[in-house]
Amino acid sequence: MAVDPILRLRQICLVAYDLEWTSNLLCTAFDAQVVFRDPRMAAGGNLTNTHIRLGDSFLETVCPTDLAWQRSTTQTRLLERNGDCGYMAIVQVPDVAVASKSMAAQGDQIGIVSGDWNVCPGAPGSGLAGVEAGRYQLGEALPKEPGTVSGVNVQFHPRDFGTLAEIQENWPGADEFPGNKGAYFPAGNTWQLGVDARPHGGVTTGFAAVEIAPRDADPAEMCARWMRGLGAGCTIDPSNPATLRLAGNQTMRFVAPPSSGRTGVIGVDLWAAPGSRRKFDAIDLCGVTWRLVER
Question: Which of 269, 263, 261 is nearest to 243 (CA)?
């Protein structure tokens, strides 16, 4: 079965003590820029964030606020345990109604941790004026009305997927990468305006792979859970039962935790920008090992 071209690793999320220092470091290392800070997340009181555009994919960093530290949230406890680290892997799916149910059926079937739908009048690139949002219900289809942009995000528990896992469907989208300028709500709705002028920086065009170390779970079994959950034709590498193949030659690798004991997202491969001098082979930033690889 062919892999659906929409089924791609679209975003990686990190959690850090210092949002500005970490974001500036990542922008410098990857020759990229912050394109969005989510005002609704900041308004919630617990987190602030940045989104850095890598081609048409995104690297998010979240940082707990003083209020979050007072409340002892999931993010503050993760920082206390691991320090700055990988937090979440986000995969774009062709049909969130189908994938949300199949993802929720995996592992211990803890189900949805959180989920939201967003609908906004306009088109990709027109901004978020008039956006409406609500809580997502398992199995709901993404609304697709002419003259609007829409998106759904659904998150699942790290115990079931080795890291906090999120699936996304956005509309109207596109399947041409790395020049996609379709809707993608996590990064706002104006990032598309800069893609033609600067498709990518001088270091990377986007994600080639994510490496996830599950806690208390066999890597091959975790890989099988993702395959059963995502569906849409993704396949397990016949030479490695702990590697999942997505569209665009992307992969998800599941490994045993390293000697440090760190779990979750511990590594990311980046496609090296064509025609540019390679700035590094591998670099450790925010508790994650980043590797540049050829397409």
Answer: 269
